[in-house]
Amino acid sequence: PFSFSRYRYVEPWYFGLCRGMAFAQLFRPRDEVRFAQSPSGGGNGCPAWDFQWFIEWPQVGQRYQLIMRAVYAPVPQQADEAGVRAHVGSRVEEARKSATPPGAALGF
Fold first, then answer.
1. Cα–Cα distances in Å, from 29 out to 10, 21, 79?
2. Does 3 score more than 70 pLDDT?
């Protein structure tokens, strides 16, 4: 039932594809969001992707804020896996740049 995924964490975002569209979720690196993936968690042939936000030493009365941005974009129809990832990666980079004005503290 449980095994190791072939996927590895590289950047604080991930995406999925459905009907020619990509949906990506982006997180701030400083929030240390952790990803989980199950090859069949959403049903046969449908992987499940989840994320957790772990606060190491939570304090009563302290405000915590998780910020996530989303990208929903079409992908090239004839692109291979590497091409799709590069295309989505460029859209993610555009979203990061537009999300954080110079000098702002969000840090996407």
1. 11, 25, 29
2. no
